[in-house]
Design goal:
By secondary structure, the protein is α/β, with parallel strands linked by helices. Among the domains are: 24-179, Rossmann fold (3-Layer(aba) Sandwich), CATH 3.40.50.300; 184-241; 758-824, no CATH class; 833-885, Orthogonal Bundle (Arc Repressor Mutant, subunit A). The chain is built from 43 helices and eleven strands. The strands form three sheets. A five-stranded parallel β-sheet has the order 3-4-5-2-6, sandwiched between helices. Strand 7 (231-234) and strand 8 form a beta hairpin. It is flat, with a radius of gyration of 33 Å. It starts with 6 loop residues before the first strand and ends in an 11-residue tail after the last helix.
Amino acid sequence: MARTGPVPADRAALPLQWPLVGRGVEIDVFETSLSDPRAHGFVISGAPGVGKTRLGDECLSVAHRLGRTVARATATPGLQSVPLGALAPLLPASLGGARCDLVAVFDAVAPVLREQSDPGPLVLFVDDVHWLDETSATLLAQLVDADLVFLVGTMRADEPVSPALVSLWLRSRVRRVDLDALDRTGVDTLLHFVLGGPATPGTIATVWSASRGNLLFVRELVLGALESGHLLDDYGVWQLSGPLAATNRLLEVVEARVAELGPDARAALDVLAVWTPTSVRMLESVVEPAVLEALDRSGMLATRADGRRDVVSLAHPLYGEILRARMPVLARRRLLLEHAERIESLGARRRDDPMRVAAARVDAAAPADARLLLEAARLARWAHDFPHVERLARAARQDGAPPEAALLHGEALHELGAFAEAEQVLADAMTSVAPDDPLYVLAAEIRSRTLMWGLQRRAEALTFSRDARARCSDAAAADELALNEAALLGYSGRPLDALALAESVPVSDSARARTLRALAEVPALIVTGKPVTAAEKARVSFAEHRGLAAPMAITNPGVQLNHEIHALTDAGALHEALALGTSAYQALPPTAPPGAPMWLTLILGRVALLLGRPATARRWLGETIVRSDEHDIAGPRRGALSFVAVAHAWLGDPEAAAAAAGELQRLPELPHSRAEQTLGPAWARAAAGDAPGGRAVLAAAADDARASGHRVSEAWLLHDVARLGDAPGAADRLDELAAMCEGALVAAFAAHARAACGLRPEPFVEAADRFEAIGALLLAAEAASEAADAAQRRGDGRAASAHRTRAHHLSRSCEGARTPGLATTDAVVPLSARERDIATYAARGESAKEIAARLFLSTRTVNNHLQNVYTKLGISGRRELAGALQLSEPFSEDDR
């Protein structure tokens, strides 16, 4: 499975007809209706593209499987002028010219249908019944009323239907269901089936947001992404690496839908495509009310209340994108300028009006007042809409705006990942203001973070921040830069120094100062073993952060949520962390800076690993990686690759684990989580059969974490040392860490390692209970499995069986994880850690001499251990080792 990068899909390999998902309730209702003698039909109503025809086809297939006679017809606009045109293929050829005589047609058709009525009436699927001519609709209604036909029909919710057919469901002769678009989960399931594997949450969110669950749109957007090479398979997880692209078919569908409405409606839609969203009052100033009403009835518009006014937008985001893409440049420019002028003519009284006017003028490449552009950039910054900030502030700078525009521009570039340009803009801004100017302090903060995070020049960032602080004569400004420096120390891997510096800064009554203090202290408190305290501080600070009147040069409040999720995780509140993280992810706005989803998905992948869900972790982390690649931000990518390697190792894919670990080594270090970045390489070694090598990597990293004060990371690393066979080497220090760290996670690590130092099952049961209580089900399953081994050693077969049953039950929630702690055997006397190491190397094909050199043992000792292994496992030699040990790669003929 190892390869050099993501792999595009072969579109031709995708099924022509996509599987039906999210329609189980409707299929059940259809089957119930088909078997109910009182029900004579089943009609599916819904908006265009929601999957009515696909569901109708499935209903016909179900009827056929149940032994019913079935037939199909399709109504079209072209056949509306032909009496019985849609039903012609089903009529007897003997009718000839009598097809306009409805009585004669019924008399000719009825005997034929009565002959086919065993075991029930003909099941006739008529697609798009709203296009049936009146004669066909009347005949069909008569046949249904006579119980000669069981109708399966589809109809568009916004189209009129013949009264003859409407009467069928009004009189409860036919059951009507209204079909909605798929929800996000349905889109996720559909893509999993179609692509043959899971997609990242961000990919699902993007497809769902663009399509709103409309099946036609989902299909065409996915096919377009495959054609453009933007939808890639990266180690079994599908990821979008670029924007969605509409196919020609999708463009034609939307164009045809618009063409149905007439030229006046098309002109109104063009206005909305450029102005959206806009008030009803403003729209009525350029569009006739009758045209708007027609568009509203057709389902093309969406209206919502915004304060005391009604706001109108296009009903589907794709409509606007496609209309704008097909619009001539000069027409779009004219509409943009008309929009700006109309807002100004009404006084531009609403808070966001300056931003809308300025954006329209910038998009139209028209002159705009520098003061207007600066005010608009401020408003966009207040809303954390950095793409708009960047465009507006750049334009303001070109028109001679004051230094504040450069500060806004530099911050926006930083947030959008354009770090080199941000550094240049901010450096220029600082030369134009004095050190005592408030803008100098703000620019220094953003610039130091740009050097730290974006350009990976950490030592320079710290030196620069100190120098900037030394130049400030104002005490409050110096204190703000000191708190900024404390945050930089924490992210440089020096949390104890960060806490010490923050503590030296006097406490201020300023909400801004309290927010800056929290941003410095909370992450340092988490990693140094105070996650419960940190979670509460982050929760309080988030609320205050959101209410800041002047948020310039302070990162998005979402960072406080990330800190709280991290703190909850390290405190052992895993389910609470998952719920908060998932909610935060779903609430991310389209304008969120690229770093926001990167760090959030990285944290969610970490949570998923601790929960024992490696496949879920791989999906979250895959998104981190693809977003990091897209924006060339290396930091989160390195952390994600480490955890991805762990996930692959746990899922029994040593090649993928090794590939991820190897790629990680080529990236610059991420200091604030340096220790945990060794988890991937360590588990990759263990998955390849080198458990002692993995333990050595973990132990060295744990020493590093201890020296830097990263206590929770140290505990995680030491616990994995114990999981890979050296509990005595980890237990004492884990006991010390449990006494120093808040929360249930580190305490559970320590209890498990201590249990593994003994031979009794009871401590393992206690450890399993602790892990299960916090949601760490994989670790709970391992502890239960070890309890079974201990009970087996004691000769208590009944208890061993009960513990194994519990381990099996817990592991079923772990998405196929195959860790050493779960790789038990049926031997009466389980293997010791040393015996398992030697047996694993032997099963991989290493000679006794090679194993002895690797483990610093004598060849005789290795051979003695191997004989003990054969005896315990009840096998005759090396060739049976892999199967007995349940390894992912069996011993081959070449392994001698």
